[in-house]
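**User:**
If convenient, please work through this fold.
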Amino acid sequence: MESNQENNFEMRKKFLNFLMKLIKKPVQIKTFQGADIGGTIRSVDYDLSNIHLGNMQTPIGIIPEALIRTNDVLFIKYSIDKVNKKV
């Protein structure tokens, strides 16, 4: 059981590091509800429960600030060039 906990810890750590690299980068998010959302990741909760987006682009307009629950996220699309570029 301990090795399973260690594996879960490593996966969460890698996922959090991945999301941290996306801060201040433009992303496209697809939700389980079928919504296509664009925006810039501003921050991520330490427990990975929410993603804070700035200038969220939705079909009904632009929302300056929003929280997206990570449980609602199907995938996050981003440009590798923009992630590797220093801000």
Observations:
- Helices lie at 2-21, 80-84.
- The chain has one domain: 2-84.
